[in-house]
Input
Amino acid sequence: MTELGERAETLLKALIELYINEGQPVGSRTLARHADLSLSPATVRNVMSDLEELGLIHAPHTSAGRVPTGLGYRLFVDYLLTVEPLKEEAVDSMQTRLASESDPRVLLSTASEMLSNVTHFAGLILIPGQENARLRQIEFLKLPSNRVLTILVTDDGRVQNRVIPTDREYSSSELTEAANYFNDAYSGSTLAKVRRMLLGEMKTDSDRMHDITKTAVAMAGKMFDQEEQDTDDVVLSGEENLLSIPDLCQIDTLQKLFDAFKTKQDLLDLLDRSMRVNGISIFIGGESGYKALNDVSVITAPYQTGGAVVGTIGVIGPTRMNYEQVIPIVDVTARLLSGALSGAKLSEHIEEAGT
Output
């Protein structure tokens, strides 16, 4: 930016906006008409030459016009872009769509699908594995025939229910006291850590353990014995939208991109990196570091529950996308998703599990 004057900035911004809207290389005469500057085509050509030397634009093939480079897009997004907030009715519509889902995992998939539908690109979301989620609360509910309903709720709103057979009948007060002990001891720890700590307590001399401690450890231990350890996953929505985008119609481009969708490892790594950023992350072309994503841009934002970041949501589209529109859509979706996840109530899950 220090090497660009105000005139060059204005022309670069106008060129990128024209190219995003029309998809055709921009010539000096066209740019002169749209830049809102009283400049001759010859002067505009000189400025365009300077922009090309700086690596911000280039001429595709033998075209007389110019298109932005990845570096040009980056400068445009970081310094020249003016992002307008979404209209209130659009936000209300998105919020209503998310509020209609109560199951957290369905809610996450719905958010990715909604993002794809609104942007007409591919939506993606990082769903954290259960082992990395943190324990919010556990409940033990008495059932007939020496059975106990164990309900485990994580900080991202997911609920696991298991019916545990027991060797004797426990009173409701015993189970409540056992759940209180367990929540005091383990709430806020990851499920992986809880599992390790339980294994340690199970090896402790049972004769020296308090009865309530024994009950809590026994109930939770059986719950975790039935749990499957899972890993982080990426859910994709609307990948077919990319097939109709002219910028991505090359067979090699699509094959590399869809191979990345199939394996998901590059996407997992990218979304994991995005979780460590406070706010929007924008990867333009080769900035992602993965060859399969060289011809696309990825815009992501972290989502959270209970004040803690638990995943990332975003879109994949062409580098020639309307960043002014897409950035606030991703940002608002992440914020609405965070609110929807944090609004999950334990009492509702307990009622559903008991029916």
Notes: The CA atoms of residues 23 and 35 lie 17 Å apart.
